[in-house]
Amino acid sequence: xxxxxxxxxxxxxxxxxxxxxxxxxxxxxxxxxxxxxxxxxxxxxxxxxxxxxxxxxxxxxxxxxxxxxxxxxxxxxxxxxxxxxxxxxxxxxxxxxxxxxxxxxxxxxxxxxxxxxxxxxxxxxxxxxxxxxxxxxxxxxxxxxxxxxxxxxxxxxxxxxxxxxxxxxxxxxxxxxxxxxxxxxxxxxxxxxxxxxxxxxxxxxxxxxxxxxxxxxxxxxxxxxxxxxxxxxxxxxxxxxxxxxxxxxxxxxxxxxxxxxxxxxxxxxxxxxxxxxxxxxxxxxxxxxxxxxxxxxxxxxxxxxxxxxxxxxxxxxxxxxxxxxxxxxxxxxxxxxxxxxxxxxxxxxxxxxxxxxxxxxxxxxxxxxxxxxxxx
Amino acid sequence: xxxxxxxxxxxxxxxxxxxxxxxxxxxxxxxxxxxxxxxxxxxxxxxxxxxxxxxxxxxxxxxxxxxxxxxxxxxxxxxxxxxxxxxxxxxxxxxxxxxxxxxxxxxxxxxxxxxxxxxxxxxxxxxxxxxxxxxxxxxxxxxxxxxxxxxxxxxxxxxxxxxxxxxxxxxxxxxxxxxxxxxxxxxxxxxxxxxxxxxxxxxxxxxxxxxxxxxxxxxxxxxxxxxxxxxxxxxxxxxxxxxxxxxxxxxxxxxxxxxxxxxxxxxxxxxxxxxxxxxxxxxxxxxxxxxxxxxxxxxxxxxxxxxxxxxxxxxxxxxxxxxxxx
Lengths: 376, 326
Fold this sequence. Notes:
heterodimer; A: 376 residues; mainly alpha; three-stranded antiparallel sheet; 4% strand; globular; B: 326 residues; alpha/beta; six-stranded mixed sheet; 12 strands
């Protein structure tokens, strides 16, 4: 039960020498250092090679936050699932399905006379409900019928993909009311630079022409929602019985069962959670692009798993944190943005992310070496 | 036609004036096409040539896959640079890209769309009016030309099949529409199947076409609406040993499409003019920044129709997509 109490050094390595302790700490925090180094690299190189433009701007920070929203929402539930030594390959298409169904629910209810805010809520309910149903089915087959998670979620991802394409009638779901765009693209704060500048909450002052260029939207609504979801996930994983059960099952499912943890029921909940966070991702992207799309989530699946692994979640289960996944998603987004600002083809992003994923797993494995588990 | 020539001449003059003043303010232009393919590579050559001629700077990013989730982060990062005056882009969805491009406009960057458009493409009185201009093919007309070409090749009767790339993209949607309309109007003995969408994946286009060939052994022709569709469909026809029996009409004059034509698989290739689109878009940016206010909202760049007989004629062969290093 050691792994259930805490994942940080003290639990699995009670009496280590000082240098080993330092090494262990480094192995846990390297992703933070890597992110910091990367930001430093772009802060220095972007102005030099791109004619004085700056990497450190409010707008850029907001762009990076907007860019991590879908990857992070796919990765958050996945973090729980992988900590429990499972995997959920269906999240990409669950996001697409949620995007399509929430667009249909929003459009059809609005056209039937439901006021817009309520229609948006109905869209959310459709997204979360459909995603939750997929997650429940995944979880039941995995937990009760003992089919490997890899196979179950691979199969369900195909089924969900088919449903998303069928229900979207193989095209983008459009015709959403105009106001939807504001939900997906307006923000909590507005900052206007320059002499008539200022800081505004909820709505910007009336602006004309060049003033718009001086305005930054800070914390757009999808980012706000994502921050709330991240906070909830952190609470759930690190402060509740739910989180302790998750680590315990990933550490040793047999031991967890003997300790009286309702393993099957917990696994079903984990796959529901994973699908629902992906569903929220689909809902938010529907708002941002003002349309439902059956192909929106598929390309993000592998990035989201990469973010989870870079963040230090062990594929063998039992270890990992929510904030690690946030760092992983940030690394991917900062890379894309920085490369575009350097005017280097953004394809380099794939090469760097690939290398970082492999390094992450190497470091994960070396942790056992540092602790001396294999040294007899 | 005459009006357009005059306007274009005015644009060219304005562009040269701007070039003369290039020391004062060097325009910076972002180029964000739809996906990695030979069509957009040729367009990029046009953009870069014009920028060189006019003394502008170009920042290019190419999305690795077709889709709003690939194009939008690159767009946002370009906007975050804070130094671009214009973005020349091919929106990957006519509805979904409205909000992200509107955000770029709000940041003070003017938008010119090439190859694909937003909304219904009528930037004067349609649902979306903020882009400066659409420069591209008249894709509905291209679909009609393809229909006439295919109908002629198969003798005016039989079953034909459309293989397309993605739904809700203005360019290929126009082609499908023009093709279907023309067939329905002029060729009552031709039955049209499809479109199937291959999501810009050649392998999938090949599979889909192979399946249609299985299902319809008497299939007479295929219309491939872009690079990926045409190459995939052409390969399926060759693999089935039906070269010459199933006629293929292909959008986009890639090297691969021309090879298939010389082998007799493809009977007609519709070459678009991506170089023109890229070059003119940069000229439009120059003209707009110089204060020209009468830029046309829509410019159709036309086609070159290539067949076996004219493909080696230099006047036509120049429209084959030539990419350095290939």
